[in-house]
Design goal:
TIM Barrel; binds zinc ion; single chain; alpha/beta; 324 residues
Protein backbone atom coordinates (compact mmCIF):
# COMPACT_ATOMS: atom_id res chain seq x y z
CA UNK A 1 0.00 0.00 0.00
CA UNK A 2 1.19 3.48 -0.77
CA UNK A 3 2.09 5.14 2.52
CA UNK A 4 2.30 8.69 1.12
CA UNK A 5 2.20 11.30 3.86
CA UNK A 6 -0.72 13.73 3.68
CA UNK A 7 0.68 17.21 2.78
CA UNK A 8 -1.55 18.56 5.58
CA UNK A 9 0.31 16.57 8.22
CA UNK A 10 2.61 18.95 10.10
CA UNK A 11 1.68 21.85 7.80
CA UNK A 12 2.25 25.17 9.60
CA UNK A 13 -0.52 27.63 8.82
CA UNK A 14 -1.13 31.24 9.90
CA UNK A 15 -4.81 32.12 9.47
CA UNK A 16 -5.88 35.57 8.23
CA UNK A 17 -9.32 37.08 7.58
CA UNK A 18 -10.07 39.56 4.78
CA UNK A 19 -12.89 42.02 4.24
CA UNK A 20 -14.90 41.84 7.45
CA UNK A 21 -17.04 44.71 6.09
CA UNK A 22 -17.45 42.86 2.77
CA UNK A 23 -17.18 45.28 -0.17
CA UNK A 24 -19.08 48.35 -1.35
CA UNK A 25 -21.65 47.01 -3.80
CA UNK A 26 -21.83 43.62 -2.02
CA UNK A 27 -23.55 44.30 1.30
CA UNK A 28 -24.28 41.62 3.88
CA UNK A 29 -27.54 39.68 3.59
CA UNK A 30 -30.48 40.89 5.68
CA UNK A 31 -30.09 39.98 9.34
CA UNK A 32 -26.35 39.36 9.08
CA UNK A 33 -23.39 41.69 9.41
CA UNK A 34 -19.78 42.21 10.45
CA UNK A 35 -20.61 41.90 14.16
CA UNK A 36 -22.22 38.44 14.08
CA UNK A 37 -19.60 37.01 11.70
CA UNK A 38 -16.70 38.46 13.67
CA UNK A 39 -18.11 37.01 16.92
CA UNK A 40 -18.46 33.55 15.38
CA UNK A 41 -14.89 33.72 14.09
CA UNK A 42 -13.41 34.86 17.41
CA UNK A 43 -15.14 31.88 19.03
CA UNK A 44 -13.88 29.44 16.36
CA UNK A 45 -10.30 30.70 16.74
CA UNK A 46 -10.52 30.26 20.52
CA UNK A 47 -11.90 26.71 20.12
CA UNK A 48 -8.94 25.65 17.99
CA UNK A 49 -6.14 27.71 19.56
CA UNK A 50 -5.57 29.78 16.42
CA UNK A 51 -3.33 32.63 17.58
CA UNK A 52 -3.28 36.32 16.69
CA UNK A 53 -5.28 36.46 13.48
CA UNK A 54 -4.73 39.54 11.31
CA UNK A 55 -7.83 41.04 9.68
CA UNK A 56 -7.28 42.84 6.38
CA UNK A 57 -10.33 44.95 5.64
CA UNK A 58 -10.96 47.38 2.86
CA UNK A 59 -12.53 50.30 4.69
CA UNK A 60 -14.79 51.88 2.04
CA UNK A 61 -17.93 50.07 3.33
CA UNK A 62 -17.49 51.86 6.69
CA UNK A 63 -17.90 55.28 5.00
CA UNK A 64 -21.64 54.67 5.27
CA UNK A 65 -21.60 52.76 8.56
CA UNK A 66 -18.65 53.97 10.64
CA UNK A 67 -20.16 52.21 13.67
CA UNK A 68 -19.08 48.88 12.13
CA UNK A 69 -15.47 49.80 12.93
CA UNK A 70 -16.21 48.98 16.58
CA UNK A 71 -15.96 45.27 15.76
CA UNK A 72 -12.22 45.87 15.55
CA UNK A 73 -12.17 46.74 19.28
CA UNK A 74 -13.65 43.31 20.10
CA UNK A 75 -11.31 41.68 17.58
CA UNK A 76 -8.20 43.20 19.17
CA UNK A 77 -9.51 42.57 22.71
CA UNK A 78 -9.69 38.86 21.78
CA UNK A 79 -5.95 38.92 20.94
CA UNK A 80 -6.26 39.41 17.17
CA UNK A 81 -4.82 42.18 15.00
CA UNK A 82 -5.58 44.50 12.10
CA UNK A 83 -3.65 45.20 8.89
CA UNK A 84 -4.12 47.48 5.87
CA UNK A 85 -5.94 46.25 2.73
CA UNK A 86 -6.57 49.56 0.84
CA UNK A 87 -9.73 51.64 1.20
CA UNK A 88 -11.63 50.78 -1.98
CA UNK A 89 -10.25 47.29 -2.79
CA UNK A 90 -9.27 48.12 -6.36
CA UNK A 91 -6.67 45.87 -8.02
CA UNK A 92 -3.25 47.45 -8.57
CA UNK A 93 -3.61 46.20 -12.17
CA UNK A 94 -6.29 48.84 -12.78
CA UNK A 95 -4.67 51.88 -11.16
CA UNK A 96 -1.50 53.89 -11.48
CA UNK A 97 0.88 53.60 -8.53
CA UNK A 98 0.13 57.06 -7.13
CA UNK A 99 -3.63 56.48 -7.01
CA UNK A 100 -3.14 53.05 -5.46
CA UNK A 101 -0.87 54.40 -2.73
CA UNK A 102 -3.34 57.22 -2.03
CA UNK A 103 -5.94 54.53 -1.38
CA UNK A 104 -3.53 52.67 0.95
CA UNK A 105 -2.92 55.89 2.91
CA UNK A 106 -6.65 56.64 3.09
CA UNK A 107 -7.29 53.30 4.81
CA UNK A 108 -4.35 53.90 7.14
CA UNK A 109 -6.02 57.11 8.37
CA UNK A 110 -9.20 55.21 9.25
CA UNK A 111 -7.51 52.17 10.78
CA UNK A 112 -4.66 53.93 12.62
CA UNK A 113 -5.97 53.30 16.17
CA UNK A 114 -6.04 49.55 15.52
CA UNK A 115 -2.98 49.34 13.26
CA UNK A 116 -0.92 50.90 16.03
CA UNK A 117 -1.87 48.11 18.43
CA UNK A 118 -0.62 45.32 16.15
CA UNK A 119 2.84 43.83 16.76
CA UNK A 120 3.56 44.05 13.00
CA UNK A 121 2.46 46.42 10.26
CA UNK A 122 1.14 44.20 7.51
CA UNK A 123 -0.35 45.19 4.18
CA UNK A 124 -2.32 42.88 1.91
CA UNK A 125 -2.87 43.70 -1.76
CA UNK A 126 -6.52 43.80 -2.89
CA UNK A 127 -7.27 40.50 -4.69
CA UNK A 128 -3.67 39.54 -3.78
CA UNK A 129 -2.73 41.29 -7.04
CA UNK A 130 0.69 42.76 -6.34
CA UNK A 131 1.42 44.39 -9.68
CA UNK A 132 0.98 43.48 -13.33
CA UNK A 133 4.48 44.80 -14.04
CA UNK A 134 7.63 44.35 -11.97
CA UNK A 135 8.13 48.12 -12.02
CA UNK A 136 4.74 48.76 -10.36
CA UNK A 137 5.42 46.08 -7.76
CA UNK A 138 8.76 47.67 -6.92
CA UNK A 139 7.29 51.17 -6.64
CA UNK A 140 4.52 50.02 -4.30
CA UNK A 141 6.90 47.84 -2.29
CA UNK A 142 9.24 50.83 -1.90
CA UNK A 143 6.41 52.93 -0.46
CA UNK A 144 5.31 50.09 1.83
CA UNK A 145 8.85 49.60 3.10
CA UNK A 146 9.32 53.33 3.73
CA UNK A 147 6.06 53.47 5.68
CA UNK A 148 6.95 50.42 7.77
CA UNK A 149 4.71 47.86 6.06
CA UNK A 150 5.50 44.28 5.16
CA UNK A 151 3.38 42.63 2.48
CA UNK A 152 1.40 39.67 3.87
CA UNK A 153 0.97 37.24 0.97
CA UNK A 154 -1.88 34.75 0.71
CA UNK A 155 -0.45 31.29 0.08
CA UNK A 156 -3.66 29.27 0.58
CA UNK A 157 -7.23 30.13 -0.37
CA UNK A 158 -10.32 28.20 -1.29
CA UNK A 159 -12.61 30.55 -3.22
CA UNK A 160 -14.93 31.14 -0.28
CA UNK A 161 -16.04 34.54 -1.65
CA UNK A 162 -17.72 32.72 -4.53
CA UNK A 163 -19.52 30.44 -2.04
CA UNK A 164 -20.50 33.58 -0.08
CA UNK A 165 -22.37 35.10 -3.02
CA UNK A 166 -24.27 31.83 -3.59
CA UNK A 167 -25.02 31.66 0.15
CA UNK A 168 -26.47 35.16 0.04
CA UNK A 169 -28.80 34.00 -2.74
CA UNK A 170 -29.78 30.95 -0.67
CA UNK A 171 -30.51 33.17 2.35
CA UNK A 172 -32.56 35.57 0.21
CA UNK A 173 -34.62 32.63 -1.06
CA UNK A 174 -34.82 31.02 2.42
CA UNK A 175 -33.51 27.87 0.71
CA UNK A 176 -32.30 25.92 3.74
CA UNK A 177 -31.26 22.91 1.67
CA UNK A 178 -29.01 25.05 -0.54
CA UNK A 179 -27.50 26.71 2.53
CA UNK A 180 -26.61 23.33 4.02
CA UNK A 181 -25.14 22.07 0.74
CA UNK A 182 -23.00 25.21 0.40
CA UNK A 183 -21.78 24.94 4.01
CA UNK A 184 -20.82 21.26 3.58
CA UNK A 185 -19.17 21.81 0.22
CA UNK A 186 -17.23 24.82 1.49
CA UNK A 187 -15.77 22.74 4.35
CA UNK A 188 -14.84 19.96 1.94
CA UNK A 189 -13.40 22.40 -0.61
CA UNK A 190 -11.36 24.23 2.05
CA UNK A 191 -9.62 21.01 3.08
CA UNK A 192 -9.13 19.77 -0.48
CA UNK A 193 -7.79 23.09 -1.81
CA UNK A 194 -5.45 23.51 1.18
CA UNK A 195 -4.05 20.05 0.54
CA UNK A 196 -3.55 20.60 -3.21
CA UNK A 197 -2.01 24.06 -2.87
CA UNK A 198 0.30 23.01 0.00
CA UNK A 199 1.51 20.04 -2.07
CA UNK A 200 2.17 22.26 -5.10
CA UNK A 201 4.07 24.83 -3.04
CA UNK A 202 6.23 22.10 -1.48
CA UNK A 203 7.05 20.63 -4.84
CA UNK A 204 7.78 24.04 -6.42
CA UNK A 205 9.99 25.28 -3.56
CA UNK A 206 11.59 21.94 -2.66
CA UNK A 207 10.35 21.98 0.95
CA UNK A 208 7.05 22.65 2.71
CA UNK A 209 7.03 26.37 3.63
CA UNK A 210 5.00 27.99 6.40
CA UNK A 211 1.66 29.08 4.95
CA UNK A 212 -0.72 32.02 5.23
CA UNK A 213 -4.34 31.04 4.73
CA UNK A 214 -7.14 33.42 3.83
CA UNK A 215 -10.82 33.25 4.69
CA UNK A 216 -13.20 36.18 4.11
CA UNK A 217 -15.42 37.70 6.78
CA UNK A 218 -18.63 36.57 5.09
CA UNK A 219 -21.76 34.94 6.46
CA UNK A 220 -20.98 31.49 5.06
CA UNK A 221 -17.42 31.68 6.40
CA UNK A 222 -18.75 32.60 9.84
CA UNK A 223 -21.08 29.60 9.69
CA UNK A 224 -18.35 27.12 8.71
CA UNK A 225 -15.02 28.35 10.08
CA UNK A 226 -15.23 26.24 13.24
CA UNK A 227 -15.69 23.07 11.16
CA UNK A 228 -12.91 24.02 8.72
CA UNK A 229 -10.43 24.67 11.52
CA UNK A 230 -11.40 21.41 13.26
CA UNK A 231 -10.96 19.32 10.10
CA UNK A 232 -7.60 20.87 9.24
CA UNK A 233 -6.36 20.36 12.82
CA UNK A 234 -7.55 16.71 12.75
CA UNK A 235 -5.48 16.19 9.62
CA UNK A 236 -2.36 17.51 11.31
CA UNK A 237 -2.33 21.25 10.54
CA UNK A 238 -0.58 23.33 13.19
CA UNK A 239 -1.78 26.93 13.65
CA UNK A 240 0.95 29.57 13.95
CA UNK A 241 1.09 33.37 14.06
CA UNK A 242 1.58 35.52 10.96
CA UNK A 243 4.90 36.63 12.44
CA UNK A 244 6.08 33.01 12.51
CA UNK A 245 4.92 32.48 8.93
CA UNK A 246 6.69 35.65 7.79
CA UNK A 247 9.99 34.37 9.15
CA UNK A 248 9.90 31.90 6.26
CA UNK A 249 11.78 33.56 3.37
CA UNK A 250 9.28 32.09 0.89
CA UNK A 251 6.71 34.50 2.38
CA UNK A 252 8.96 37.44 3.19
CA UNK A 253 10.52 37.54 -0.30
CA UNK A 254 7.42 36.41 -2.20
CA UNK A 255 7.02 34.43 -5.37
CA UNK A 256 9.18 35.21 -8.41
CA UNK A 257 6.25 35.35 -10.86
CA UNK A 258 4.79 38.66 -12.08
CA UNK A 259 1.24 38.23 -13.35
CA UNK A 260 -1.95 40.24 -13.62
CA UNK A 261 -4.01 37.10 -12.97
CA UNK A 262 -5.89 36.28 -9.76
CA UNK A 263 -3.36 33.87 -8.22
CA UNK A 264 -2.18 33.24 -4.68
CA UNK A 265 1.52 32.83 -3.89
CA UNK A 266 1.42 29.00 -4.04
CA UNK A 267 -0.15 29.15 -7.49
CA UNK A 268 2.53 31.63 -8.58
CA UNK A 269 5.33 29.46 -7.21
CA UNK A 270 3.83 26.43 -8.97
CA UNK A 271 3.44 28.24 -12.28
CA UNK A 272 6.98 29.61 -12.07
CA UNK A 273 8.42 26.14 -11.37
CA UNK A 274 6.22 24.35 -13.93
CA UNK A 275 4.35 22.35 -11.27
CA UNK A 276 0.83 21.30 -12.33
CA UNK A 277 -2.04 22.29 -10.04
CA UNK A 278 -5.14 20.25 -10.84
CA UNK A 279 -8.61 21.49 -9.87
CA UNK A 280 -7.43 24.93 -8.66
CA UNK A 281 -9.78 26.76 -8.91
CA UNK A 282 -12.06 23.77 -8.23
CA UNK A 283 -14.70 22.50 -10.68
CA UNK A 284 -17.25 22.60 -7.81
CA UNK A 285 -17.51 26.37 -8.39
CA UNK A 286 -19.61 25.61 -11.48
CA UNK A 287 -22.10 23.74 -9.26
CA UNK A 288 -22.01 26.57 -6.71
CA UNK A 289 -23.24 28.89 -9.48
CA UNK A 290 -26.20 26.58 -10.14
CA UNK A 291 -27.42 26.72 -6.54
CA UNK A 292 -30.21 29.08 -5.43
CA UNK A 293 -30.16 30.94 -8.73
CA UNK A 294 -31.45 34.51 -8.87
CA UNK A 295 -31.38 36.57 -12.07
CA UNK A 296 -28.47 39.01 -12.11
CA UNK A 297 -26.83 37.52 -9.02
CA UNK A 298 -24.27 35.10 -10.40
CA UNK A 299 -20.74 35.49 -9.03
CA UNK A 300 -19.57 37.28 -12.18
CA UNK A 301 -22.55 39.63 -12.18
CA UNK A 302 -22.23 40.50 -8.49
CA UNK A 303 -18.46 41.05 -8.72
CA UNK A 304 -18.88 43.01 -11.96
CA UNK A 305 -21.56 45.20 -10.35
CA UNK A 306 -19.34 45.88 -7.34
CA UNK A 307 -16.28 46.85 -9.39
CA UNK A 308 -18.48 49.18 -11.49
CA UNK A 309 -19.62 50.78 -8.22
CA UNK A 310 -15.99 51.25 -7.09
CA UNK A 311 -15.14 52.87 -10.44
CA UNK A 312 -17.60 55.65 -9.59
CA UNK A 313 -15.45 56.48 -6.56
CA UNK A 314 -11.97 56.01 -8.07
CA UNK A 315 -11.92 56.25 -11.87
CA UNK A 316 -10.57 53.05 -13.44
CA UNK A 317 -11.55 50.45 -16.00
CA UNK A 318 -12.10 46.99 -14.48
CA UNK A 319 -10.66 44.05 -16.43
CA UNK A 320 -12.86 41.04 -15.59
CA UNK A 321 -10.48 38.72 -17.51
CA UNK A 322 -7.93 39.24 -14.73
CA UNK A 323 -10.04 36.96 -12.52
CA UNK A 324 -9.64 33.96 -14.82
ZN1 LIG B 1 -9.86 41.52 -0.04
Amino acid sequence: MNQTVDPLHGLRVAVTVDDQFQWTGIPFPEGHGPKSVSRAMIEAFANHNVPEVYAFNSTAPTDESPGDLSILDDWCAAGHHVGNHTHQHVSLNWLDVETYLGDVDKSEEILRPWLEKAPSRYFRYAFAMDGDTLDKTRQVQTHLTRTGYLSSPVTLWFYDAQFAVAYQRALALSDREAQKWLEDELVRTAVDQTRRQAAAAASAIGRSPAHILLIHGTTVAGATLDRILAELANLGVEYITSEEAMRDPANAIGSPLTTRKFRNASQKWAEFAGVALDDVPPAILDDVEEVAKIDGQSWNEVLGGATAEWAKRIPFTPVPADFH
